[in-house]
Specification:
Layout (H helix, E strand, L loop, with lengths): L2 E5 L3 H13 L3 E5 L2 H7 L7 E5 L7 H11 L4 E6 L2 H10 L5 E4 L4 H13 L1
Parallel strand pairs: 1-2, 1-3, 3-4, 4-5
Helix pairs in contact: 1-5, 2-3
Length: 119
């Protein structure tokens, strides 16, 4: 079973994403912030990191960089509600990562996860 590390500070969105991905057949480890996500990397390996970019403390870009350093080849997908952050993230994010802008439908996220897992 493919494993996903999910980092999202919005509790309700984190719950919706986690349940949708679990229903799609993925094992999901959900984290409330970047620090918790970095700690959870020791429970890897993971197949995909799905993270919000803007979070208090450690942001999603930092989480992605640490995850990519520990797990080369890890697929990385960002979700963000801030368009300017999404544009800037492309330059700072690990190569090959995907950025989705909020609002985004759960079906769209699950479909994009499935595409990334198949690649």
């Amino acid at each position: 079973m493919n494993r996903i590390l999910l980092a999202e500070d919005d509790e309700s969105l984190r719950g919706f994403l986690s349940r949708a991905l679990e229903r799609a057949g993925y094992e999901v480890r959900s984290c409330a912030d970047g620090e918790e996500a970095i700690d959870a990397l020791s429970d890897g390996p993971y197949d995909l990191l799905l993270t919000d970019i803007v979070m208090p403390g450690v942001d999603g870009i930092e989480v992605a960089r640490e995850a990519a350093a520990r797990e080369p080849g890890l697929r990385i997908m960002f979700i963000t509600g801030f368009a300017a952050v999404a544009l800037a993230a492309g330059a700072r994010a690990p190569q090959g990562s995907k950025v989705l802008s909020k609002p985004v439908h759960l079906r769209e996220i699950v479909a994009e996860v499935e595409r990334m897992m198949a690649a």
